[in-house]
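Archive record
______________

***
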Amino acid sequence: MAPNSSERQGGAVGSPGEQGLPVLPITWRPSRTRAIVVTVAVLMACSMSLVAALLPSDGGAPWPLPDRIAFGGVGFVAAAVLCVLARPKVVADRGGLTVVNMLRTHRLEWPQIVRVNLRPGDPWVLLDLDSGETLPAMGIQPSNGPGAALQAVADLRSLVELYSYTGRGD
């Protein structure tokens, strides 16, 4: 079965389904932030490599080959670190929610999510969990525009409400 291919505002993939709910699976990611970070990473790697290639290898202050290679390598290490900033996303499917933050990935079942929060000034969505913990969901950010973030939060709240019923009377 082919994945959803229609783009929703805010970097979410899917289209409105029945009852106004998004079609699952749906992915939210901060597309503006991602584009900027990837562009800066490519520029960093290219510019540091270019400078390393142009450093003098002879003359009054020569740069030995290992030093020039290390200088160019620093650009690629910095680009890799920047690419970690482009990693966050939130993926919702019928089984639950996958939250990919910069360094960790969390898999949550729908009943584990108690509340979806995006207060004014918050950099990203915060998920209140049934364990009493709060999990940042960095894939939904107001950086794509407040309207896109509010729509993503509304969609996620609707999905949590629909799929969180456990049959235990809660």
